[in-house]
Amino acid sequence: MPRQDVPYGGAICRLKERIAEIWDKLDQKLHSINGVEGDGAGNVDIVSGDAAVVINNDQIGHRIEVSLDSSKLPAAAVSSVNGQTGAVGLDAAHIPSDGNFNVQTDINWCKTTINDCFDSITTEQDDRKAADDELQTNINAARASIPEMSATPDPYKGVERDAQGRAFAADPAAGATDKTLVTANWVSQTGDSAPNNVAHRNGSETIDGDKRFTRLLIGRGTGQYYTNFWLQNMSIDRSVYDGTRKEIQISFRDMNGQVLGGLMLVRKTASTEIVARVFRKDGTYVDTTLISVTETP
Asked: What is the pLDDT of residue 260?
């Protein structure tokens, strides 16, 4: 028997050497998988116990692929789910929530609360719209009542003003004594037919009631005396006698406007007299000269 690695002629010796080499190689190969040894051929089969688990042998790539077919997952009945057995079908009533309630109870409560909220929101929307409509109506009414800047008064819109800020309004009723605002036109009308009760500086007017005129005398002892009341004739000049008769009269009349008498200051050619006149019922009268002052021409 030749020594190892020493060449030696003959076919048998060479075969034994080759077998020894192969055995050494096999000794280095896989002997088991997870402790499972191969069969007589050294083969260990990897199999699947479920149709959903698929074993794919890749001879070319020298690999085994284990994959999952989700379409074939088992659908067998569970023994018990939340007290339900067999082919269990769960709904919200089977799922507990806080306390002694379940999800379905909570859903029902939420649905009722949401519906109440919707009702409240709808009511609020209706109330808001009604309030807005009423407010807009009041705004429109207030806007309509605001007068335009016009010189033409509108009795239905109250006082108006023009571009200069002057207020205009309709005249009060004739003889008004209420709190109606007056106008310049109403006040300025004179005469007994005027709609106002105002005494004016010109025009013939009837004035009723007692009127008191008071004024202190000024300049006493200096020769300057100011009376409290005077009647003035604009055609008489105290320093001139022009030969024509002029009068200043205070007349007393009856209820029908007929003259009962009066006092007159008469300016004659060369004298000035104060005359008292009294009428008889037939219209004739008697004059009495109270004082007469003669001037030298």
From this structure: 95
